[in-house]
């Protein structure tokens, strides 16, 4: 070990050696910026001890990348992997997350929302564009439709290397390194080299975009940031929006329901009580004043969780072979044996590898109860339609008055106040049946 080599203590990898070539890049502003980015995004709001930083994560990835390169060098000498290749692999691991913004992937969702709003309401951004042109002398480039932190990472790697006088040829990466870092192969480098969509953020400006941007917003007295300051203070005081309902997509019609946009689901919820009461949804608040449910009162969120390969089992995408199987040793990846599930072997394999849910949050605490009732009615109706099938037609029929002697066998007799009920009508008249949902004075009519 060289006398100039640094030692870094890591909770997982114990001692990590940092040679001088990596020290120069590690100490550069783009990499040091990772100290102020949380690896787990906003998770620390729910788990205060979840404060792993992106610098810690990147140091671990650097160490693992070097270990992979060393193993390839030892086990497959025919590939001619050099010490320089391993050094480049470690640098790539150190720099792979440079393009992340504040609060990790939450920042990506923020940019998507701004992009959508800018397209729909360009007049709201005229002042911003004017200020940008006055400050920089050029028109502000448009925001990207789909932000990818990998692309920005490549731009930042260029900046980090340039800051220490280094330059790298992205067009001809060595094949072994390309296989290890398959997510950033020659094809992606070529695309980035020809089409950089992120001129709106120069590498110099990007260095200052970190989690502490929240503190700057709280300290800024500008009235334009009033709404942002309110949101940040609410989060610090744990005055968060209340979740009033959640539903699994599998119970609501599967893919057909998932294709609906969040705005379409919100429209359905708004119309739910309009049909329920025959007028806009109203509800008595604490002061006995009638409240109306408005679009800005709640949020509909579609959430998809998976194991990294959408609805596929990621293990089945891996390739395995025995060390004694020399015939397959030098085969390309797609020619290696695939993983096979052994059904008679005790395993805890998930039934589904993707979980899709819809969650509804209420911004107003006074309207949480009202929105909860709306959501439950909407959910029951959706589930019932999914169970009935696409050929079932929902119609409304008035109910006759039911006398007490006719309801002795019922646990909850129907009263005169109950005016309507769902009825599913199939092709046969004999298959009609009523479905009682709740105890409301009027039934939902769709």
TrEMBL record:
Domain HD/PDEase, first and last residues per copy: 50-201
Positions with biased composition (Polar residues): 408-419
CDD domains, A to Z: HDc
Matching SMART domains: HDc
Spans annotated as Disordered: 405-432
Any one Pfam family match given in the protein's UniProt record, by short name: HD
Top-level taxon: Eukaryota
PANTHER family xref list: DEOXYNUCLEOSIDE TRIPHOSPHATE TRIPHOSPHOHYDROLASE (PTHR11373), DEOXYNUCLEOSIDE TRIPHOSPHATE TRIPHOSPHOHYDROLASE SAMHD1 (PTHR11373:SF4)
Protein name per its UniProtKB record: HD/PDEase domain-containing protein
Organism: Stephanodiscus triporus
């Amino acid at each position: 070990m060289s006398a100039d080599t640094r030692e870094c203590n890591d909770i997982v990898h114990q001692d990590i050696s940092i040679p001088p070539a990596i020290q120069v890049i590690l100490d550069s502003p783009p990499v040091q910026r990772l100290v102020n980015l949380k690896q787990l995004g906003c998770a620390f709001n729910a788990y205060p001890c979840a404060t792993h930083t992106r610098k810690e994560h990147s140091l671990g990835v650097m160490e693992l990348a070097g270990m992979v390169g060393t193993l390839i060098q030892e086990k497959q000498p025919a590939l001619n992997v050099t010490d320089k290749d391993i050094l480049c692999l470690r640098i790539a691991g150190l720099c792979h997350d440079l393009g992340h913004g504040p609060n990790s992937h939450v920042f990506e969702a923020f940019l998507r929302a701004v992009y959508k709003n800018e397209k729909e309401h360009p007049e709201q951004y005229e002042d911003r564009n004017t200020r940008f042109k006055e400050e920089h002398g050029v028109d502000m480039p448009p925001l990207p439709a789909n932000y990818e932190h990998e692309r920005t990472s490549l731009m930042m790697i260029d900046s980090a290397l340039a800051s220490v006088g280094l330059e790298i040829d992205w067009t001809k990466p060595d094949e072994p390194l390309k296989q290890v870092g398959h997510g950033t192969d020659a094809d992606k480098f070529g695309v980035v080299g020809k089409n950089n969509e992120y001129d709106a953020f120069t590498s110099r400006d990007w260095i200052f975009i970190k989690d502490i941007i929240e503190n700057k917003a709280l300290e800024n007295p500008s009235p334009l940031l009033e709404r942002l300051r309110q949101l940040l203070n609410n989060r610090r005081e744990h005055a968060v929006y209340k979740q009033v309902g959640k539903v699994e997509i599998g119970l609501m019609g599967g893919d057909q329901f998932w294709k609906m946009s969040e705005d379409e689901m919100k429209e359905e919820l708004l119309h739910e009580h309009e049909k329920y009461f025959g007028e806009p949804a109203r509800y008595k608040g604490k002061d006995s004043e009638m409240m109306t449910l408005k679009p800005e009162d709640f949020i509909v969120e579609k959430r998809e969780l998976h194991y990294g390969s959408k609805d596929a089992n990621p293990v089945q995408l891996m390739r395995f072979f025995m060390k004694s199987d020399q015939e397959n040793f030098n085969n390309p990846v797609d020619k290696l044996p695939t993983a096979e599930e052994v059904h008679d072997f005790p395993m805890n394999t998930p039934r589904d590898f993707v979980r899709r849910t819809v969650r509804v949050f209420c911004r107003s605490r006074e309207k949480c109860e009202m929105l909860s009732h709306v959501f439950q009615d909407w959910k029951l109706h959706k589930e019932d339609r999914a169970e009935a099938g696409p050929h079932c037609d929902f119609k409304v029929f008035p109910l006759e008055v039911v006398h007490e002697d006719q309801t002795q066998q019922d646990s909850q007799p129907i009263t005169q106040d109950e005016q309507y009920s769902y009825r599913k009508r199939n092709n046969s008249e004999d298959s009609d049946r009523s479905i009682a949902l709740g105890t409301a004075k009027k039934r939902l009519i769709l």
